[in-house]
């Protein structure tokens, strides 16, 4: 799919912007309901580390854990409620979220045992934000799905000073290069429909200025080597005998973390987590 590259801020946006009546991705088909033990495992493996990073980073910026527990939290694109569940374990009481997928909202509230997440049918996130007041907003891998990204950051500029915004986005990194080379394989980043936005370090800095946010923390890591291994093994599957393919797979797995750490340290990883405070 074609993307437009902005010469001002370095951002990439899909040319194929869907209309307001277009059918949106049904994320409940990607994140199915889990058994209670599986739900807790996913929360503890993926979302609790995010919360621990937020708490650790904001404590270094002068915001104590005790204060964080008193703040009004709002998760944008709350999905199945995993992060809100982690927040509840942390001791935060004023927690809520919204999501455009009604099935995920029902799943989240069932798992949380309370109506913490509301269904938000408004397709414009910038408009939806106006209906959900909070002291701290979190949006994990949401902003790449919206059509009005600039308007979202402009809306955050209207927040009271001291409001905290935490978000994560995919960026133009190593895995995007792989998407461009292995054209016959499924593109995780450059699909152009599910991911309508692709950020860069430059466009994140630009967006933070638009939002009036001071960056207080950044967390860089990625899944690029997962993609590298996937593309290599899928393309070699028809060329290598199975024993050789399995041997290569084991050797690639053995160096997975070392390769990813190199990409992370060199800022070529495909993801960024950012914490900003409204100036």
Features:
seven-stranded mixed beta sheet; alpha/beta; 11 helices; three-stranded antiparallel beta sheet; globular
Kindly provide the name of the CATH class: Alpha Beta
Distance between the termini: 37 Å
Q: How many separate domains make up the residues?
A: 1
Over the alpha carbons, how many angstroms does the gyration radius reach? 19 Å
Residue-averaged pLDDT: 93
CATH architecture classification = 3-Layer(aba) Sandwich
How does the helix and strand content classify structurally? Answer: alpha/beta
Helix coverage percent = 40-55%
CATH topology: Rossmann fold
- For the largest sheet, list the strands in their spatial order: 5-4-3-6-7-10-9
Order of helices and strands: EEHHEHEHEHEHEHEHEHHHE
How would you sum up the global shape?
globular
- In the CATH hierarchy, what is the superfamily? Vaccinia Virus protein VP39
Largest sheet: 7 strands, mixed
pLDDT < 50 stretches = none
What is the tally of helical segments?
11
**Which band does the percent of strand residues land in?**
15-25%
